[in-house]
């Protein structure tokens, strides 16, 4: 199965509130196809240029050498990367806080020797683990999309 179809099926099966957070692989492929080859059939030199240059040694010139299609693709690629990264960082922070809260609840429940509370916390820990596995899968799928 091709990656695009595999990604689409994974998106359908994930949590509904996460669906719009995945890489827009199809849109990126469409933009990439618009770039094409130069008039003489040779690969354009600007394909090797970078949009940003953190070292400050000529990156602006490279960005200026891009065609509008290449610049459009790079803007979309960076926006997708920002979308993916922001969501992941947000979830990571949320999970760190939640993990600490669960640890505190386990300690309190163990002190009370309440079997019912321990069972409730156990269920929440199992659910929490499942959500972390989903985030790991989300990260792996998006990483694969960026490297394809």
From TrEMBL:
<feature type="region of interest" description="Disordered">
    <location>
        <begin position="43"/>
        <end position="63"/>
    </location>
</feature>
<feature type="domain" description="SPX">
    <location>
        <begin position="1"/>
        <end position="148"/>
    </location>
</feature>
<dbReference type="GO" id="GO:0070417">
    <property type="term" value="P:cellular response to cold"/>
</dbReference>
<dbReference type="GO" id="GO:0005634">
    <property type="term" value="C:nucleus"/>
</dbReference>
<dbReference type="GO" id="GO:0016036">
    <property type="term" value="P:cellular response to phosphate starvation"/>
</dbReference>
<dbReference type="InterPro" id="IPR031142">
    <property type="entry name" value="SPX_prot"/>
</dbReference>
<keyword id="KW-0539">Nucleus</keyword>
<dbReference type="InterPro" id="IPR004331">
    <property type="entry name" value="SPX_dom"/>
</dbReference>
<dbReference type="Pfam" id="PF03105">
    <property type="entry name" value="SPX"/>
</dbReference>
<protein>
    <recommendedName>
        <fullName>SPX domain-containing protein</fullName>
    </recommendedName>
</protein>
């Amino acid at each position: 199965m091709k990656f695009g179809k595999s990604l689409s099926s994974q998106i359908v099966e994930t949590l509904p509130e996460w669906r719009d957070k995945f890489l827009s692989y199809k849109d990126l492929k469409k933009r990439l196809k618009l770039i094409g080859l130069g008039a003489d059939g040779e690969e354009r030199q600007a394909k090797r240029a970078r949009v940003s240059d953190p070292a400050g040694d000529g990156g602006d010139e490279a960005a200026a050498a891009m065609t509008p299609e290449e610049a459009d693709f790079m803007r979309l690629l960076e926006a997708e990367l920002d979308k993916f990264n922001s969501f992941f960082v947000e979830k990571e922070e949320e999970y760190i806080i939640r993990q600490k809260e669960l640890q505190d609840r386990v300690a309190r429940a163990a002190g009370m020797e309440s079997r019912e509370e321990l069972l409730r916390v156990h269920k929440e820990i199992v659910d929490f683990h499942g959500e972390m596995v989903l985030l790991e899968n989300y990260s792996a799928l998006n990483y694969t999309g960026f490297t394809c």
